[in-house]
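Reopening this ticket.

The earlier resolution said the output was attached, but the attachment link was broken on my side. Pasting everything inline this time so it's all in one place.
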Amino acid sequence: MRLVSVLALCLGLTGPLAAAPLCGDPDTPCETATGSYHIALPEGPGPHPVLVFLHGHGGRGGPMVEGATARDATARGYAYIAPNGLIRPARTRPSWNFHPDFPGQRDEAAFLQEVMQDAALRFDIDPKRSLLAGFSIGGSLASYIACATPKAFSAYAPVSGSFWRPHPTGCAGPVRLLHAHGWRDEVVPLEGRVIRQVMGRDFAQGDVFHAMGLWRAANGCENHRADRFETTGNYWRRIWTRCTPGAALEFALFDGGHTVPKGWSTLALDWFETLDGPGQ
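Inline output:
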């Protein structure tokens, strides 16, 4: 992985990389109008496909560009972008405004498009080949964006995070989505759980199995059950293939708790690279 070099500026080179100010490393985020992000770039010329990964509650983008998933992505030629959530008033840890019933300080879908536009100006990336992923609440935000605007990114890969109650009544489609979840997750159980009462209502996680039904409906899949089953490696995979052209849907369970499991980046990027066309 490499971070943006000032050498291109000194040599007077042209193009997105040459125009980029020095930012994006773990300590110096790239600032946008409504937030910031960090980025790690692969070696070699672009334009590079992009993995955008949304941190969980309390996470930050800076450490993520030095993590294993970033290293795996850049080794495969991907730019890895880690946006930063905001700290809500009276709170101390960053999060995302992901729940449609509880609007926050920022339109996160608009912010992520802002990040992609800014990164395309600064760096040699290809926004038309973009996978939006996220962990926990980051996975919830990725799910809501996939539901409302499936063409905002080429594909989606939420990990250990999905919709909250009340579930959406329906999603736009077709969508290309791989959902991974731990069989023994107790923080975000597959069936969901009530977190607390907010304004007299339950603030409650949703049911991942119900979410898969929403994705099947959005994709026009012929069957409720999966069309293919695979149990190789660390995952129990359920794959729907008889769906609307342009759709892709897979559910991957792993024997673990609330985590991004070992080998997830290989699973997600292998899946992404099997998809036909850019999807945008």
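Reporter confirms the inline version is readable. The chain has one domain: 7-274. The CA atoms of residues 101 and 277 lie 34 Å apart.
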